[in-house]
Amino acid sequence: MTDYTVDYLMGNARVLEAAGRLGSFSAAAAELGMTQPAVSQQIGHIERVVGMPLFMRRHRGVALNEAGRTLVAAASEARATIRTALEQATAVSRDRALNVLTDYGFAANWLISRLPDFEKICPGVKIQILTTQALQAQPPLGITADVSILFEAAVRKSGENRITLFEEEVYPVCSPAYARTYGPFTTLADLGRAHLLHLNGHENLWFTWTDWFARMDPDLSARGSQKTARFRTFGNYPLLLQSAMQGEGIALGWRPLVDTCLESGVLVKVWQKPLRSRRGYVLTARTPRSSQAELFCDWLVNLSRMNI
């Protein structure tokens, strides 16, 4: 075995470990924020580099063979050792940054604009924003999230270190120029004929246009008209909102992510009735909480209660 083989395995340990642990390339892709074909291709390349199969392909999922189990165990141990060492090295510095993990949409459309206010109140706390599109909180290797603000499909009961900040509340929104040019949108049929902007990804995690039409009116004809109106899709929420602000169509607007745009008039609601669920953004703090995390969490909770 060459040094290249060892180095390649180390560089792809996360994919190998996730696929082996979950027994599914699709589940590994979801956890890592990748596509299933990309994971499958990478595993195939690993097997070619080591010169042997590591997985048994089955009709449903995959299973490690003996060689695969040996390598995945070694990869998991190596990653754990590196993570522990980096955490210990980072902890030496008392003024280290507070690592905040969240998704692109929450960071870009809500959190970043409000951080200067926190920095005025707590000037000694350094904030490092980590972003993810994965379903699970997976910060970069060697970095531990002190605080996470993630959208959860089923909001569990709040506790000392878990607090629901915002429950899901959605409105269709567009630019004033688009509303003037293509409106008014007084019926579901009007909306069904509009340029609807769609968010790709884990559709079971948040509302889609199909969900919205079905909840507003269960009539099949209304939903049928919507199905033909898929105009443009986006892989992350800030890009989708940018398209809406540029007058390219109507987007589903999640509160509080669109609040600033609505207040400034950059976006307007085209349907006043909200669509709500018990899903939403949840604040989770690592235990034990540092004094920095305590200050940051208190600030976030106060903001959410004031709904600003």
UniProtKB/TrEMBL annotation:
One of its GO terms (biological process) is DNA-templated transcription. InterPro entries: LysR-type_TF_proteobact-type (IPR058163), LysR_HTH_N (IPR000847), LysR_subst-bd (IPR005119), WH-like_DNA-bd_sf (IPR036388), WH_DNA-bd_sf (IPR036390). SUPFAM superfamilies: Periplasmic binding protein-like II (SSF53850), Winged helix' DNA-binding domain (SSF46785). The keyword Nucleus does not apply. Residues 14-65 form the HTH lysR-type domain. It comes from the Bacteria. The keyword Transcription regulation applies. Signal peptide: none annotated. Keywords: DNA-binding, Plasmid, Transcription, Transcription regulation. GO terms for molecular function: DNA-binding transcription factor activity; sequence-specific DNA binding. Belongs to the LysR transcriptional regulatory family. PANTHER family: GLYCINE CLEAVAGE SYSTEM TRANSCRIPTIONAL ACTIVATOR, HTH-TYPE TRANSCRIPTIONAL REGULATOR. This is Glycine cleavage system transcriptional activator. It comes from Komagataeibacter saccharivorans.
